[in-house]
Specification:
With 170 residues, this protein is of the alpha+beta class. It contains three helices and seven strands.
Length: 170
């Protein structure tokens, strides 16, 4: 597992204002992708620990809108407006956060012999803003991956050899 980092100044190929982390989840790509692409499941795991979500619209398709409010444990509401700009089932989802602060989030899924590595890359349009919020973003991104792991593992597992299935037993 790659450790979380602050805005990436060590890798000259990364745009300024980039945050990266990854996590291996003991599940197939299809199972992980299902937890991302199903709005009900996405609402359960999205956001930092203790946050909940109210989705107004979640059109999981290229060009689809994703509008929701994150509710912090202290009662503060954070409205969000996003667009799904790329979806490559079951390997990649790219989301453009079109409300402020603007950023692009890329989730990559790579099957391994023991599960799926989820790569999380968040690139803020403003490197200065990213630097000011790194102390919030870095642990929040780790919380997201913690919560995604819990959501994926709550579903009945498929064998790793059955990656062509949708990720759910019916």
């Amino acid at each position: 597992m790659e450790p979380p980092i602050t805005p990436d100044t060590r890798n000259s190929t990364s745009p300024p204002g980039t945050f990266r982390t990854s996590r291996e989840i003991p599940a197939t790509e299809a199972q992980v992708f299902a937890a991302i692409g199903d709005p009900e499941r996405l609402a359960r795991w999205w956001g930092p620990a203790g946050f909940t979500n109210t989705f107004e619209v979640c059109e999981f398709k290229v060009g689809g809108r994703w509008t929701f409010t994150m509710h912090a444990p202290n009662g503060t509401d954070y409205p969000n407006e996003n667009e799904f700009v790329e979806i490559e089932e079951p390997r990649r989802v790219v989301v453009q956060h079109v409300s402020e602060p603007r950023f692009r989030l890329t989730l990559g899924l790579t099957q391994t012999p023991t599960g799926t590595v989820v790569s999380w890359e968040q690139v803020f349009e403003s490197a200065g803003f990213a630097g000011r919020v790194a102390h919030i973003v870095v642990p929040a991104n780790e919380d997201n991956l913690d919560r995604l792991t819990v959501e994926v593992l709550r579903e009945p597992p498929l064998s790793l050899g059955d990656a062509s299935e949708s990720g759910r037993n019916r």
